[in-house]
User: Which sequence fits this backbone?
DNA sequence: AAACAGATGTACT
DNA sequence: GTACATCTGTTTA
């Protein structure tokens, strides 16, 4: 049975439903990528979300339709990628935090300047560097080239816990991960 | 193993 | 000017 492609209607749901469903899915960008093992949900009612204080030039994509890419610069150095969810300008998105590399590994190693597979995509900035995603790709649709997105096959155990690296609403358990994965940015506690 | 400092762009208190 | 959804190399604060 061939893998099922994810279309933009997949994202037309609450971030808290889409986020766990993304764990185990396969994400490729120009043929490089792998299995999504860690994400974080950012709902527009969440003080930690970029959209919390309304629309700006940077976050405009979040206010558009679901199924599009939102890329922003983090700490002046890294790029981070999000999948926009929920229609009607709900301005909610999911941050892609870690991937288990399966495709285009040598290209990703070259872009990262690192050989260790475990360190290729174990963090949101690393994911973008490895896949070659930058601000130039902001607002691209997720169900067209250069993206390929496939639903997970079979069952997986999804764990959740507090988000990482944020100062606002840090206690909300909106980080989702693949249980036991060796490719997380950090292990999940208890 | 854990804490830190440095790099650096963009948004906005 | 300050904060920030980060990563890396260096130090033990």
Assistant:
């Amino acid at each position: 049975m061939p893998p099922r492609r994810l279309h933009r209607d997949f994202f037309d749901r609450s971030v808290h439903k889409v986020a766990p469903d993304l764990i185990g899915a396969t994400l490729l960008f120009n043929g490089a990528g792998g299995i999504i093992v860690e994400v974080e949900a950012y709902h527009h009612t969440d003080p930690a979300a970029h959209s919390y204080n309304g629309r700006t030039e940077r976050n405009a994509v979040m206010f558009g339709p679901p199924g599009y890419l939102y890329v922003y610069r983090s700490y002046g150095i890294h790029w981070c990628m999000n999948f926009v969810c929920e229609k009607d300008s709900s301005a909610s998105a999911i941050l892609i935090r870690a991937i288990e590399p399966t495709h285009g590994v040598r290209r990703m190693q070259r872009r990262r300047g690192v050989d260790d597979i475990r360190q290729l995509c174990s963090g949101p900035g690393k994911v973008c560097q490895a896949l070659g995603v930058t601000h130039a790709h902001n607002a691209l649709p997720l169900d067209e080239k250069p993206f390929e997105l496939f639903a997970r096959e079979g069952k997986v155990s999804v764990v959740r816990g507090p988000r990482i690296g944020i100062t606002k609403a840090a206690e909300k358990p909106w980080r989702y991960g693949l249980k036991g994965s060796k490719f997380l940015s950090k292990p999940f506690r208890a």
